[in-house]
Design brief:
Pfam families: Chorismate_bind. The protein has 372 residues and is of the alpha+beta class. The protein is built from 7 helices and 18 strands. The protein binds ligand ISJ.
């Protein structure tokens, strides 16, 4: 199937008010489409299910599933950037509301105060910004995201009883292939100005180290070996972040591992419960699915043995891999009628400057506004 046919199928499904998800993994060209056959709201109970997961920030709320068995699945290649109409005109930067700025600064000040008084060590504080879409369609936004962010997980998710979400996230929550787990600690932000070789402040290094330590500690009860990579600077659109890759061999079930990890201090804080309570009680809006996670759950993939082997008979015994591949729902938006709600936040430590934190959220929302 070619990409235009895949888009037409998704549109038809949307017009029939039926759930679907279209997505492309980082640095890949294959776009997958799952069309759910009815409009039931399926929920994940224990992560033994198989399908596409859409989980909220608050782990007390329901996790939505588009089950593989109740869906028609398609895929297409998206690699010829010129096959599409050229990227549509970027909308002028929307006006920043003075009230949003004052509120965010107040929120960060309250966060810094709570840290200074010992309530927690780090908290990620965020806000919602609304942009009017004018004539741009959801499908145009999705294809612009695919073109603009080749190294992100790009998706468009729709359920008539839940909503319409789009995003291009740079952050993996975890990937599990049989019992091999890989994840990342991503935090710290600065603007990209043409150079990856940049210096990072102590605040960003510490903030990212909190995330690495938390992930390593949380995996400890389920892991035989945990390997941490070096701290690297990575690019996400026009922003840079600090990242440490983490791999482990796990012996626990996926539900227990997720319960320990989500939400990580990359999107919540440290310690988890105190920072989470602060977020739920103090942010000026409800996060719903922003900073939740999404992706494939228990996908079965046939993997043939090494093709270079002399003994070709071995190739007959293709092994089946069980794969779960989840991403943190960042750099995302919710579409409501003719408006897009963009969600942006940043990590706060005792050393945070409220005005700089406000500016960081402005840079992050700019990344999303580029495709609107
Ligand atoms: C919370 C967001 O991003 C997270 C926070 C970061 C930070 O504090 O520097 C960086 C990357 C993400 O882990 C967001 O993009 O909304």
């Amino acid at each position: 199937m070619d990409f235009q046919d895949l888009i037409a199928k998704a549109l038809e499904h949307y017009n029939n008010s039926l759930p679907f998800v279209a997505y492309r993994k980082p640095n890949q060209s294959t776009v997958k489409l799952m069309l759910q056959k009815d409009d039931k709201v399926f929920k994940v109970e224990d992560f033994s299910e198989s399908g596409f997961v859409f989980a909220p920030f608050n782990d007390k709320e329901d996790i939505i599933l588009i089950p593989f068995d109740d869906s028609d699945n398609f895929q297409a290649e998206f690699n010829d950037l010129h096959q599409l109409n050229k990227k549509t005109e970027t909308q002028k930067t929307a006006e920043i509301l003075e009230e949003d700025k004052t509120n965010h600064i107040k929120l960060v000040e309250a966060g810094v105060k709570a840290i200074a008084s010992g309530e927690f060590k780090k908290v990620v504080l965020s806000r919602k910004e609304t942009v009017i879409l004018h004539s741009k369609s959801v499908i145009q936004i999705f294809t612009d995201l695919l073109q603009s962010y080749p190294s992100a997980f790009v998706y468009c998710w729709y359920h008539p009883k839940v909503g319409m979400w789009l995003g291009a996230t740079p952050e993996t929550l975890l990937k599990v292939e049989n019992n091999r787990l890989s994840t990342m600690a991503l935090a710290g932000t600065q603007k990209f100005s043409g150079n990856l070789d940049v210096t990072w402040g102590e605040k960003e290094r510490q903030e990212q180290q909190f995330v690495t330590n938390f992930i390593a500690d949380s995996l400890q009860p389920f892991a035989n070996t945990i390997t941490l990579g070096d701290v690297q600077t990575v690019k996400a659109g026009k922003l840079l972040h600090l990242q440490t890759k983490i791999t482990a061999t796990i012996n626990g079930n996926l539900q227990a591992v997720l319960k320990a990890l989500h939400p990580t201090p990359a999107v919540c804080g440290l310690p988890k419960q105190a920072s989470k309570n602060f977020i739920l009680n103090n942010e000026y809006y409800k996060r719903t699915y922003y900073t939740g996670f999404l992706g494939e759950l228990n996908l079965k993939e046939a993997k043939s043995r090494n093709r270079n082997r002399r003994n070709v008979e071995n190739n007959a015994y293709a092994s089946i891999k069980n794969i779960s591949d989840f991403y943190v729902n960042l750099r995302c938006m919710e579409i409501e009628g003719d408006q897009a709600n963009i969600f942006v936040g940043g990590g706060i430590t005792e050393a945070s400057n409220p005005i700089q934190e406000w500016e960081e959220t402005v840079h992050k929302s700019g990344t999303m506004k580029q495709v609107l």
